[in-house]
Specification:
Number of domains: 2
CATH topology of the largest domain: Rossmann fold
Shape: globular
Organism: Marinirhabdus gelatinilytica
Largest sheet: 6 strands, mixed
Bound molecules: nicotinamide-adenine-dinucleotide
GO biological process, one term: amino acid metabolic process
GO molecular function, one term: oxidoreductase activity, acting on the CH-NH2 group of donors, NAD or NADP as acceptor
Keywords: NAD, Nucleotide-binding, Oxidoreductase
Number of strands: 12
Strand content: 5-15%
Oligomer: single chain
Protein name: Glutamate dehydrogenase/leucine dehydrogenase
Radius of gyration: 19 Å
Number of helices: 13
Distance between the termini: 39 Å
Order of helices and strands: HEEEEHEHEHHEHEHEEEHEHHHHH
Length: about 375
């Protein structure tokens, strides 16, 4: 979790929001509180130059409010660059609800959260993230139109996770092409860490291709379910990062690429769904490069979900969703090449392209 890698002790106590380590010129941060439902949420709107800030809602039992704030700031910023690099007319936003999704998520709490989203008049549009399901977005939809990722029955594009997984699979293939000269993943040893909505769908793609897949999760029941469904192996060790593997696919929470893990990694490629995989973008991007590990930038390859929910706003169909998601392969290849030519990290290469699109739009205005 974020706590392990970000030292919150030294935060400037007189600037607890604008002085946050992860604060990066965010336009707006909204704290939502409701005693009756127990709702405690934070909505982060990072940037709306390209359009309304769209990003999912995460429900998680954070160790502290600092962690929740840090997470929403990091996640909302990531959304800005994800939409920019994918060519979508969306800004970056995200929300976190503090609490245990298994025991504290009630229909009343979700609706109250929806009312807070509604109060922002469309500057922020929500969707699902960790701890949320399509059914939760359907509940939010009953109180606000500013929600995506709703079910097909309610006129939405449905669960975005399989599309996210497909985009990650495309990005992973492009990274394999760059690193190994072939994008065929058959017999490649891939460790998938986190087999939730996206992780499971990624496992399905990988096992269809004949990759040798190991799965890891903190939820034993899920591990057994996914193992039985796709005939893959459960990782039984204690330190996934030190295992011999070709590809490491982080699909749980962020910041697993950090000071403690990079020097242990034996993978040649890192490509996964989790947002904010690098605890510190510049530093850890460079460290990966120095170790000869090819990193497929998370915000580039996990954009399938946002492509899927964007369809609800722009009214395009499944075929266009798949075409745009498949294109992640080409964009990833291009960015990996650019990074090589310019001798910069892959994260920097992706970031620069995204930033230039935002700057160009800002100058037009
Ligand atoms: N759902 C989407 O469409 C989408 C889109 C883009 C990015 N992402 C990102 O992908 C990641 C996964 O999303 P999801 O929708 O599958 O979430 P999810 O809640 O369905 O799954 C997360 C899984 O990670 C596991 N997990 C949590 N901590 C872990 C740990 N320390 N070690 C191993 N496993 C752990 C959980 O038990 C769960 O099975 C998140 O970082 C999310 O932000 C998701």
């Amino acid at each position: 979790m974020v706590t392990d890698v970000v030292n919150t002790k030294d935060l400037n106590k007189i600037a607890p929001v604008f002085g946050q380590l992860s604060f990066d010129n965010h336009e707006q941060v909204v704290f939502c509180n409701d005693k009756d439902t127990g709702l405690k949420a934070i909505i982060g709107i990072h940037n709306t130059v390209l359009g309304p800030a769209l990003g999912g809602t995460r429900m998680w039992q954070y160790n502290s409010e600092w962690d929740a704030l840090n997470d929403v700031l990091r996640l909302s910023r990531g959304m800005t660059f994800k939409s920019a690099i994918t060519g979508l007319n969306l800004g970056g936003g995200k929300a976190v609800i503090i609490g245990d999704a298994k025991t504290q998520k009630t229909p009343e709490l979700m609706k109250r959260f929806g009312e807070f989203v509604h109060s922002l008049s469309g500057r922020y549009i929500t969707a699902e993230d960790v701890g949320m399901a399509t059914a939760d977005m359907d509940l939010v939809r009953t109180v606000t139109p500013y929600v995506t990722g709703i079910s097909e029955e309610m006129g939405g594009a449905g669960n975005p996770s399989p599309i996210t997984a497909y985009g990650v699979f495309m990005g992973m293939k492009a990274a394999a092409k760059h690193a190994y000269g072939t994008d065929v993943l058959e017999d490649k040893v891939v460790y998938v860490e986190g087999i939730g909505n996206v992780g499971e769908a990624l496992v399905e793609n990988l096992s269809n291709e004949g990759a040798k897949v190991y799965i890891a999760d903190i939820n034993q029941e899920r591990l057994e379910e996914v193992r039985d469904k796709y005939n893959v192996d459960i990782y039984g060790g204690r330190n996934i990062y030190a295992e011999e593997m070709d590809i490491y696919a982080p699909c749980a929470l962020g910041a697993t690429i950090n000071d403690n893990t990079i020097h242990q990694l034996k993978a040649k490629v890192v490509a996964g769904a989790a947002n904010n995989q690098l605890a510190e973008e510049l530093k850890h991007g460079k460290m990966l490069r120095e170790r000869g590990i090819l990193y497929a930038p998370d915000f580039l390859i996990n954009a399938g979900g946002i492509i899927n929910v964007y369809a609800e706003l722009e009214n395009y169909g499944k075929q266009e969703i798949m075409r745009k998601t498949e294109n992640i392969y080409n964009t990833t290849l291009e960015i990996l090449k650019t990074a090589e030519v310019k001798d910069i990290t892959t994260h920097q290469a992706a970031f620069e392209i995204a930033q230039s699109r935002i700057d160009a739009r800002k100058n037009e205005k």
